[in-house]
Automatic annotation (TrEMBL):
The keyword Ubl conjugation does not apply. Catalyzes the synthesis of activated sulfate. Belongs to the APS kinase family. PANTHER family: BIFUNCTIONAL 3'-PHOSPHOADENOSINE 5'-PHOSPHOSULFATE SYNTHASE (PTHR11055), PAPS SYNTHETASE, ISOFORM D (PTHR11055:SF1). HAMAP family: Adenylyl_sulf_kinase (MF_00065). This is Adenylyl-sulfate kinase.
Amino acid sequence: MKEVSHKRHIAKAITWRCIGTLDTIFLSWFITGDPYVGLQIGLAEVLTKMLLYYLHERVWIRINLGKHTISQWRHILKTISWRVVGTLDTMLLAWVISGNPVVGLKVGMVEVVTKMLLYYLHERAWYKIDYGIKNRTTNGNILAENNLSPQEFAVSQQHRLSLKGHKPLLVWFSGLSGSGKSTLANMVEKKLYEKKIHTYLLDGDNVRTGLNKDLGFTSEDRSENIRRIAEVARLFIDSGTVVIAAFITPLKTDRETIKEIVGENNFVGVFVNASLEECERRDVKGLYKKARSGEIKNFTGVDAPYEEPVDFDITIDTAACGTEEAVAQILNIVERRIVSRK
């Protein structure tokens, strides 16, 4: 999880204020024809804008939309929200200083276009700067620190996609133990296979007996388990394969890590929503009974939390939706995302 410091927000506020103030000064000068009025408006907005921009940054760090993949949509939405706040502030200041509401309106309207572009570029530039971000590792950091040089291969992902005839995707099933994740994942893969789609299914117990057999069930080991699986899924995606994964994945931070690794555009989340009571009633593997008796520690739903996904693409309510209907819902979205090219 990335931690963004107050120093980063302050530094961003300062750099943007320099750019924004210069823009306002020149626009006000151009519209009023008086450089002194432009200077007054520009200087007056420094204090108000610094405070407003800082608060805007603090609000946005709490908004998860597009945050963990740093999507282009996040930058666009931040640009729009700040522009609304900033333009209203400029219009009011220009009105008060010039004594003419028409001047305030003109300055505010004209700066919308210039500031939207400048703010967007400012956001993109700051994403490439690590200052004030803790525990942020990028491919560039890893490569530089370990003297690694990725090999360029003759066969690219595009070549593989052309051969397979469909786009790759990660379909991630999350839910309590016994919710029916593996059953649905298995059926979805079977249906895709019948349609000549190249797939591979990753399941919790299977992975833990091989790739991740060295991991236990502490919170750290669980997160590492998910991270490794996401990295494996990323490799399968590069091969052009539709990956189907069925893991409890109880924590929001781990689910965000998955999206960050594989890319949000390559991710479809399926929340298999079965109540704890129903899962415990089924108890196919007898795990809940062992957890209740204390034989198993840190068992999700009993003595470890499950944070329900609120941002997944599909929610399957197992109490109201039959298996065939659930599979049909999942396939409807998956097939639209992989877009067959045959």
